[in-house]
Each structure stands twice: as structure tokens, then as C-alpha cells.
């Protein structure tokens, strides 16, 4: 593909097939299964209510929280506007400091680069720091396919990996598991684990420590993501809690970091904003236990070989959308997941993407596209929301997620052309313009009672209306419409009674006033 | 065929040309340059560290060796690692084995240490954060990571009120670690548990007159 000067071409979405940006089934279908899982809903309800309370407490204690959000939002918008120069600056600085920078157009290319770099070290295993970017591109699956064993070292990622499960939350990928389930996974899957292991979280954490200790001390290669990359200095940042990040970033000889191109920040000083926004929004702590900042290679301290892989994988396609572009400002704190009434009930798996919840519902279609004609599960994601707006309020960089969802719904409708819904709306408009026809239609709607079950709801309609009833129950139409009740003797009597009541109330009020005036 | 680099940069330029947005001015109205008196910074810093379940020992500089010795004894430490450049007198109150770190010490050898004693580059009171940057007395990053007990000496004069003031003290090119309490996880039911892969115990000796 070539680009001619003066003729910008819309950047392509990554080819499907690699990575984890598309589920197997549409959201309503997937959510339907998840909603049947009582254990999942109890686990999620408990965890999200805990974290919501903590977040409100620590964001509330900063008098300049709103100013920090404004600064964070503007820094991100400014970054997107100046992305080419900032990335070139980052590349130059990292290279000057002894690092090597690679560019990847899509998931497949990034996977190949990482696998090649690992093979060049002679190692057949890597330790991994939790990273959304490597989840997104399906790096673990690719490494395994070429004979390299990846070891996830974040506790939640380890739980997910051991259980051959999928992550369901940005911050806590195993949020759908409770302590009893985690205990069982460890008993079943960690070789040599104490068979007396109980479900106390501290003991479970200790079991993970014991299991991974030897790996950390002997690993030759680590793979990480990055929370921030500073263009001005070439500094990269990983924000974490357990120390597994520090282990991976410090002990092995070779470090490979995969970073989405949107993670760059212009200045080192910008950290003063994001190191306040991120921990308070994500774990609800004033500061996360550990943050590592490194710039290229430092002789005698940490890896001798550092590689930075800059990843596109649909980010440039998102950037070409004036409205949708805001989704790239996300700093992956997961506050929007924790406040979302939809996420809290369905969990993360229903979204089918590495990025679940409200931000996932906008980011996933932005990155991977939605092919309406092909029944793409991604085209169901913009509808996985009640548009209540809690996500917008919680977002530390003020991404207006509800507006992005509405925009994506608009784009989806534009793509789909003529649908049953559109025809139905057209028919409704025609009927509503003619009162006589409207009354007749309303009378006919009483027939809906025939379809309703004993609980008074219609849960299944025949095609072509099944699309409507698939994801919602409809209350059966009432015996009588409001208009016909209003015109009946009973309606007129009720109206007269109400008028009389209102008149006497007004008279009483007036006499109250008179008394007050008299005193 | 274009290189991946040229392709990605070309795509970004195309995207920005297709969807141009006006330049934004970044508002920086959040609190910066705050100065708090010593006693307030000490109280805030201590409160935050205790909240993280770190040990806190405020003392005057002349008591450093006594306190460090006491802490190491209390935890039954027999072998302690120290970075090059650490003030040797800080260990005068300790009778066990002291090993000075260098780049040839392997991770497994670090794992055989019971504790590590380091200095620090800066602190942040509002978040209870300590900054290490690999300067003399602080050591390479692996040293303050692998041993299970980290005793960190912090001079109150280097503890700033908030995050912006502390970040302003940092030297970007130095490998920098921000430490806020012992290692912890919230991965099980989003409940915080102290003690995972990093040091499970953090003890901070705050020198109030240094």
C-alpha cells in the first residue's frame, strides 16, 4: 500500500484472526449465559462494591481532583494531536540510551517480533508482567505455538492462566473468581502446593510467591507492557502492586516491552498528573505499592538488552475518527467497569474482548471494527449499555463514553442499511400521524396479551421481531389504553374528582396566606 | 514495501489529516509547589505508611545506627545486604553479617539475604511514597527487591508534600522505583493483602533532623 502526498487514506483495521479483540457471539447471547451464573454475580457484586467505596474515598480527599482530570484529559488530547513527533522523539531517546525500538502494524507482526527476539536469546521461556497490549495481540498463544513458554506472574493473570480461563477485568483479570475457587485452582494446578492450603487471601498470595520465586531468579527474558512512555526522556513506566513487575523489569538479561502507540506522554512532568489519577481510580489507593521508571539500559542495574515494540493494531484507525478518537485516551484504570450496572451483572467475558466494560464497548469496535453485514459480535457492543453515564463521571481522563457509544450506534445503523427496526419505525411514524389509525392500532395491540406469559411479560416474539425480544422482556399491553380510558365515563369521573380536589386545596392555601398577612 | 515504522507513522499522519482537531492548551490548575512545615509532613507521611502496614521509626540522625540495629535484631536478621556508598556507621548497632552488593551478586545470592538496608532519594508525604534512584547508598534495583525485609532510611528534608513536588526532584535518566508500603495485591476479591513478591516487610526510618 502506498500513500500519495495530499491524499490521506483511512488507516486499515487489523486483519481478523489474531489476538483477542472479538468474541464468538453477540453480547446479548453471551450475557444471557453469564447472567445465569449466580456465583459470578455474587463475586462481581462484592468486588465492585468494595472498590467503588475505596475509589470514592481517595478521590474525594483530593481538593484538586477535577483539575487533575482536566489536566489528564488535555494532556492526552494534546498527545494524540502530536503523535508522530512524540513517537519519533520517544524512539530517538530510547535508542540514545541503548534500547532498540521496533514498530508493529498489527498483532501478528508484534507477535513475530517478540518471538524472534526471545529466540535470539536462546531461551525457551519468558516471565510476563500483566499487560493489556500483549493480551490484546494474543502473545501467549503465539509464543506457545513456536515452543516458548510464557509464565504470567501477576497473581490474577496466574489464576487465569492456570485455570485455562480468560481475563474478565482490566485490573483484576480473575475478578470473577472467589477465594474458594482460587484455592481449588491452586490445589489442582500448582505442582507441589501444600495440600492443606486454605482460602485465606494472604495464604493464597504466599502460595503464588513460592511457585514463582524460582522462575524470577532464573528467567533470562521478560515481557512487559507499559503504562506510560515519556517522549521527552525515553522513560517507560510500569505501575503495579505485587513486585512481580519489578522482578521482571529488573532481574532478567533481556526485557521486551510492548506498548500501544497511544501510551506516549509528552513530558516527564506529566507523570505528576497520571501518578495521581491512575492509582486512585484503579485500586482506590493513594499510591500503588510499586512503580518502575526506566530509561533505556543502565549498566550494572537491570536488563542489558532492552527492546520496545510500538504497536498500532487498529489504533491509527481509531485516530481517524474525530469522536471515537477519545477512546485512545484511556489509561486502563478500570474505574468505568467498577461503576457500570451492565458490567456488574454480566461480567467481562460477555464482551468477548481483552477490553470489557464501558471502555471496552467503545475501544474494541474502534480498534477491530464492526462488520455489521457479517453479524460481527463487535457490532453488538455499543448497545451493551443503559447510557446511565456513571462511566463518564468515574473516568479520570473524562472520556465521554456514553456519547461515544451513541456515535458507534449511529455508525452501526448507517452501515446496516434497511432493517426490520427501521421499517417498524417508519410504519409507526405513519400511524402516529393519523389519530383514527392510531386508535385502531392501539386497540389491536391488546392482542399482545395473548402472547404474554402468566407473568405478564412477553419474552419471545416470532421473527422478524425476535431481534427485539432476544435481549429484553416486554410488559404485556394493558387491558385498556390510556386514551380509551380517558374517554370513558370512569376517566371523566376521575378527572372531575381531581379538579375538585385541586380547587379546594387552592382555597385552603389562600386562606392560610390571609391569616399570615393578618398577624 | 514500506517499513513498519514508515507505515505506522504514515497512517497516523493520514488519520490526523482526515480528522483534524484543534490544538488544546493543557490546563495545569492542580496543586503544585506546595510547602508544608516539617511536623505536618512527618505526620502525613507516617499516617500513610502505617495505612500501608509499613513499620515507621522517626528518630534524629544521631540515633540512626541504634534504630537500624534494633529493627534488624527484632526481625532476627543474620545476613544483611547493603549497597555501595551506604554510610557504614548506620550498621554500627548491628552485629550480624554485612554483605556489600555489586553487579556480580546473582539473584539467588540476593535471595539468601535476610534483609537490605538502603538510603532513599526522595519521599512524598501525601501518598506515603519513597523514591529510590540508584544513587550511592540506594543500590541497584534488584537489591531493594529480592530480600524479604527492606529497611529504608529517609531524611525528612527530602520528603515533599505531594506528588508534583516529589516528581520534580527526580532525575529522569536514573532507574527509579516508587515504593508505597510492602508489596501487596488486591487480586483476590479486590481486598488488599500485604506481602507478595516484593519485600513482605518494609520498615522506614525517618530522620527528622536530616
UniProtKB/TrEMBL annotation, chain A:
<dbReference type="InterPro" id="IPR024185">
    <property type="entry name" value="FTHF_cligase-like_sf"/>
</dbReference>
<dbReference type="InterPro" id="IPR024569">
    <property type="entry name" value="LutB_C"/>
</dbReference>
<dbReference type="InterPro" id="IPR009051">
    <property type="entry name" value="Helical_ferredxn"/>
</dbReference>
<feature type="region of interest" description="Disordered">
    <location>
        <begin position="496"/>
        <end position="519"/>
    </location>
</feature>
<keyword id="KW-0004">4Fe-4S</keyword>
<dbReference type="Pfam" id="PF13183">
    <property type="entry name" value="Fer4_8"/>
</dbReference>
<dbReference type="InterPro" id="IPR017896">
    <property type="entry name" value="4Fe4S_Fe-S-bd"/>
</dbReference>
<keyword id="KW-0813">Transport</keyword>
<keyword id="KW-0408">Iron</keyword>
<protein>
    <submittedName>
        <fullName>Iron-sulfur cluster-binding protein</fullName>
    </submittedName>
</protein>
<feature type="domain" description="Lactate utilization protein B C-terminal">
    <location>
        <begin position="419"/>
        <end position="487"/>
    </location>
</feature>
<feature type="domain" description="LUD">
    <location>
        <begin position="87"/>
        <end position="297"/>
    </location>
</feature>
<dbReference type="Pfam" id="PF11870">
    <property type="entry name" value="LutB_C"/>
</dbReference>
<keyword id="KW-0249">Electron transport</keyword>
<feature type="domain" description="4Fe-4S ferredoxin-type">
    <location>
        <begin position="327"/>
        <end position="399"/>
    </location>
</feature>
<dbReference type="InterPro" id="IPR037171">
    <property type="entry name" value="NagB/RpiA_transferase-like"/>
</dbReference>
<feature type="compositionally biased region" description="Basic and acidic residues">
    <location>
        <begin position="506"/>
        <end position="519"/>
    </location>
</feature>
<keyword id="KW-0479">Metal-binding</keyword>
<dbReference type="InterPro" id="IPR004452">
    <property type="entry name" value="LutB/LldF"/>
</dbReference>
<keyword id="KW-0411">Iron-sulfur</keyword>
<feature type="compositionally biased region" description="Low complexity">
    <location>
        <begin position="496"/>
        <end position="505"/>
    </location>
</feature>
<dbReference type="Pfam" id="PF02589">
    <property type="entry name" value="LUD_dom"/>
</dbReference>
UniProtKB/TrEMBL annotation, chain B:
<protein>
    <submittedName>
        <fullName>LUD domain-containing protein</fullName>
    </submittedName>
</protein>
<feature type="domain" description="LUD">
    <location>
        <begin position="90"/>
        <end position="206"/>
    </location>
</feature>
<dbReference type="InterPro" id="IPR024185">
    <property type="entry name" value="FTHF_cligase-like_sf"/>
</dbReference>
<dbReference type="InterPro" id="IPR037171">
    <property type="entry name" value="NagB/RpiA_transferase-like"/>
</dbReference>
<dbReference type="Pfam" id="PF02589">
    <property type="entry name" value="LUD_dom"/>
</dbReference>
<dbReference type="InterPro" id="IPR003741">
    <property type="entry name" value="LUD_dom"/>
</dbReference>
Amino acid at each position: 500500500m502506498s500513500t500519495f502526498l495530499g491524499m490521506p487514506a483511512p488507516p486499515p483495521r487489523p486483519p481478523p484472526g489474531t489476538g483477542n479483540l472479538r468474541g464468538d457471539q453477540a453480547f446479548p447471547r453471551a450475557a444471557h449465559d453469564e447472567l445465569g451464573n449466580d456465583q459470578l454475580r455474587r463475586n462481581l457484586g462484592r468486588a465492585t462494591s468494595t472498590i467503588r467505596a475505596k475509589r470514592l474515598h481517595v478521590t474525594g480527599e483530593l481538593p484538586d481532583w477535577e483539575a487533575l482530570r482536566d489536566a489528564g484529559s488535555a494532556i492526552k488530547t494534546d498527545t494524540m494531536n502530536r503523535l508522530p513527533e512524540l513517537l519519533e522523539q520517544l524512539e530517538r531517546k530510547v535508542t540514545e540510551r541503548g534500547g532498540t525500538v521496533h514498530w508493529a502494524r498489527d498483532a501478528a507482526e508484534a507477535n513475530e517480533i517478540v518471538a524472534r527476539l526471545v529466540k535470539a536469546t536462546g531461551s525457551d521461556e519468558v516471565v510476563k508482567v500483566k499487560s493489556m497490549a500483549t493480551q490484546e495481540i494474543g502473545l501467549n498463544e503465539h509464543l506457545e505455538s513456536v515452543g516458548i513458554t510464557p509464565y504470567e506472574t501477576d497473581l490474577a493473570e496466574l489464576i487465569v492462566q492456570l485455570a485455562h480461563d480468560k481475563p474478565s477485568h482490566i485490573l483484576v483479570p480473575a475478578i470473577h473468581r472467589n477465594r474458594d475457587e482460587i484455592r481449588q485452582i491452586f490445589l489442582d494446578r500448582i505442582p507441589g502446593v501444600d495440600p492443606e492450603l486454605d482460602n485465606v487471601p494472604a495464604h493464597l498470595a504466599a502460595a503464588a510467591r513460592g511457585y514463582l520465586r524460582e522462575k524470577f531468579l532464573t528467567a533470562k527474558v521478560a515481557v512487559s507492557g507499559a503504562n506510560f512512555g515519556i517522549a521527552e526522556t525515553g522513560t517507560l513506566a510500569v505501575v503495579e502492586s505485587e513486585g512481580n513487575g519489578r522482578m521482571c523489569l529488573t532481574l532478567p538479561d533481556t526485557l521486551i516491552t510492548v506498548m500501544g502507540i497511544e501510551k506516549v506522554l509528552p513530558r516527564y512532568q506529566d507523570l505528576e498528573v497520571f501518578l495521581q489519577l491512575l492509582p486512585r481510580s484503579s485500586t482506590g489507593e493513594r499510591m500503588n505499592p510499586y512503580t518502575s521508571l526506566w530509561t533505556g539500559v543502565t549498566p550494572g542495574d537491570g536488563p542489558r538488552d532492552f527492546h520496545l515494540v510500538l504497536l498500532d493494531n487498529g489504533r491509527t484507525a481509531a485516530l481517524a475518527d474525530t469522536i471515537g478518537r477519545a477512546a485512545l485516551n484511556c489509561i486502563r484504570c478500570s474505574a468505568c467497569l467498577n461503576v457500570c450496572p451492565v458490567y456488574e451483572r454480566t461480567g467481562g467475558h460477555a464482551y468477548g474482548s481483552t477490553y470489557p466494560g464501558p471502555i471496552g464497548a467503545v475501544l474494541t469496535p474502534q480498534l477491530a471494527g464492526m462488520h455489521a453485514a457479517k453479524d460481527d459480535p463487535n457490532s453488538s457492543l455499543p448497545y451493551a449499555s443503559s447510557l446511565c453515564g456513571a462511566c463518564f463521571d468515574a473516568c479520570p481522563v473524562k472520556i465521554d463514553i456514553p456519547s461515544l457509544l451513541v456515535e458507534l450506534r449511529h455508525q452501526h445503523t448507517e452501515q446496516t442499511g434497511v432493517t426490520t427496526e427501521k421499517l417498524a419505525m417508519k410504519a409507526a411514524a405513519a400511524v402516529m400521524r393519523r389519530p383514527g389509525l392510531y386508535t385502531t392500532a392501539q386497540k389491536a395491540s391488546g392482542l399482545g396479551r395473548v402472547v404474554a406469559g402468566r407473568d405478564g411479560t412477553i419474552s419471545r416474539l416470532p421473527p422478524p421481531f425476535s431481534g427485539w425480544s432476544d435481549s429484553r422482556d416486554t410488559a404485556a399491553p394493558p387491558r385498556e389504553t390510556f386514551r380509551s380510558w380517558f374517554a370513558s365515563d370512569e376517566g371523566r369521573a376521575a378527572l372531575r374528582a381531581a379538579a375538585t380536589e385541586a380547587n379546594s386545596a387552592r382555597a385552603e392555601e389562600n386562606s392560610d396566606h390571609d391569616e399570615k398577612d393578618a398577624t | 514495501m514500506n517499513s513498519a515504522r514508515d507505515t505506522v507513522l504514515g497512517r497516523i499522519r493520514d488519520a490526523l489529516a482526515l480528522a483534524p482537531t484543534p490544538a488544546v492548551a493543557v490546563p495545569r490548575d492542580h496543586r503544585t509547589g506546595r510547602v508544608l512545615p516539617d511536623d505536618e509532613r512527618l505526620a502525613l507521611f507516617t499516617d500513610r505508611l502505617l495505612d500501608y502496614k509499613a513499620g515507621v521509626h522517626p528518630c534524629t540522625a544521631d540515633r540512626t545506627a541504634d534504630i537500624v540495629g534494633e529493627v534488624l535484631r527484632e526481625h532476627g536478621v543474620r545476613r544483611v545486604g547493603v549497597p555501595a556508598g551506604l554510610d557504614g556507621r548506620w550498621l554500627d548497632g548491628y552485629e550480624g553479617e554485612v554483605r556489600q552488593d555489586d553487579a556480580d551478586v546473582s539473584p539467588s545470592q540476593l535471595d539468601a539475604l535476610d534483609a537490605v538496608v538502603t538510603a532513599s532519594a526522595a519521599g512524598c508525604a501525601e501518598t506515603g511514597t519513597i523514591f529510590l534512584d540508584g544513587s550511592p547508598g540506594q543500590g541497584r534495583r534488584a537489591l531493594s527487591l529480592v530480600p524479604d525485609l527492606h529497611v529504608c532510611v529517609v531524611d525528612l528534608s527530602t520528603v515533599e508534600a505531594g506528588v508534583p513536588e516529589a516528581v520534580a526532584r527526580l532525575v529522569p535518566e536514573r532507574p527509579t522505583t516508587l515504593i508505597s508500603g510492602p508489596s501487596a495485591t488486591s487480586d483476590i476479591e479486590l481486598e488488599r493483602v500485604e506481602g507478595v513478591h516484593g519485600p513482605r516487610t518494609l520498615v522506614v526510618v525517618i530522620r527528622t533532623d536530616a
